[in-house]
Amino acid sequence: MAKHKYDSLMSNAKDYVMIIVGLILYALGFCAFILPHGIVIGGMAGLGTLVYFATNTLIPVAVTMYGVNLILLLGGYKMLGRQFALRTIFGATGISVFIGLIEGYFTSHPPLIADTAMSIVLGGMLCGFGIGTIYVHNGTSGGSDIVAAMVTKVSNVSVGRILMSVDMTIVALTFFLPFDGDLEARIQASIPRIIYGWVTIFIYSYITDQIINTNRQATQFIIFSNKWAEIADAINTDAHRGVTVVDGQGWYSKHQVKLLLVWCRKIESVTIFRIIKSIDNNAFITQSHANGVYGKGFDNMRIKMKKKKEHHSEQATE
Question: I need a surface site. Which of 33, 65, 109, 258 has the fewest CB within 10 A?
Fold first, then answer.
């Protein structure tokens, strides 16, 4: 029990450290490469950017982000639950602090990369790495995540569709920012900024998905070998992965055989191959991709079961 508690504490501590790393990457990508070019992106960072330019840089992005996150959390606390709220407060506070510390410097100096297209690509990549790192370690930076979490509680609309709709709308509001000129000039000035914002959303969304999917990718091995016991022991002791032994029969030879089933992370597959080949170079091996493996030693299933509604009318008639 004590060891399990220790492992749990260490796991949570590592998660929070990596969430902080992700928050720093996101803040750096946004403040150093996106904000200096006046590009509005999705989420609370985008909303904060709108307020920042609408007030002629009077209200910092970080202030708007934190204020709106707190309002959303207060409104949805009962619906979202204590655990989600605590992690969101941690993430929202961290991202606001990091952005608040560096946004003034980067907005008061020329952009690090003068070319807007190259700058938003790099900024979007850093933001994507940051968001992906946060999500992989069960964190959240608030903003659109809170809106998506609340909507999914009362609707069957997918989280991805909600996030995309909210982010695209925030970027489109760039058109209504203060502008000196007629409608035609406003269109010519605003449309490129909106397109840059949408491109940035695509870039960091793609990078985020790749990080999340890569982290969950797993490999399944089915191994046929006369030295199955030695291979199983070696995989247990050297690769620290479990092995399942299944009884089988070769239909052509009618001989009884043993099949070894092994699941491991994608990056561990080379180790498994080396172990097998070092013991039996003639082993028959099949390898297949698994989108995700859930259970001990792999990912936890993060699906919240819906509570069954009590049918008061039926109980009353009994």
Answer: 109
Q: What length is written for the chain?
A: 318
> Residue 234 is encoded by which pair of tokens?
């070696």
Q: Classify 138 in phi/psi space as left (phi over 0), alpha (psi -120 to 50) or beta.
A: left
Instruction: Using the CB atoms, write b or e for 47-65: b if 16+ within 10 Å.
Output: bbbbbbbeeeeeebbbbbb
Please answer whether residues 138 and 23 qualify as being in contact, where contact means their C-beta atoms are separated by less than 8 angstroms.
no
Identify the CA nearest to 193 among candidates 225, 170, 161: 170
- Asked whether 236 and 297 are in contact (CB, 8 A), the reply is no
| The one-letter amino acid at 20 | I
DSSP letters for 199-237: HHHHHHHHHHHHHHHHHH-EEEEEEE-TTHHHHHHHIII
Cα–Cα distances in angstroms (integers) from residue 129 to residues 26, 27, 296, in the given order: 7, 11, 27
**Would you call 15 helix, strand, or coil by DSSP?**
helix
Alpha-carbon distances of 225 from 69, 201, 271, rounded to whole Å: 57, 49, 17
d(CA 44, CA 147): 11
What three-state secondary structure class fits 287? strand
- Please name the residue ranges forming H helices in the chain: 2-29, 43-54, 61-80, 82-107, 116-136, 144-154, 159-172, 183-216, 228-234, 269-279, 312-317
Retrieve residue 138's tokens: 């069960």
Going by C-alpha positions, the residue among 200, 83, 199 that lies closest to residue 140 is 83
Tens-of-pLDDT digits for all 318 residues of the chain?
Answer: 444 344 455 667 888 899 999 999 999 999 999 999 999 998 899 999 999 999 999 999 999 999 998 888 887 777 777 777 788 888 899 999 999 999 999 999 999 999 999 999 999 999 999 988 888 777 888 877 777 667 666 666 555 577 788 889 999 999 999 888 888 999 999 999 999 999 999 999 889 878 877 666 678 899 999 999 999 999 998 888 889 999 988 888 888 889 999 988 776 788 888 899 899 999 999 988 776 666 665 555 555 455 554 444 445 445
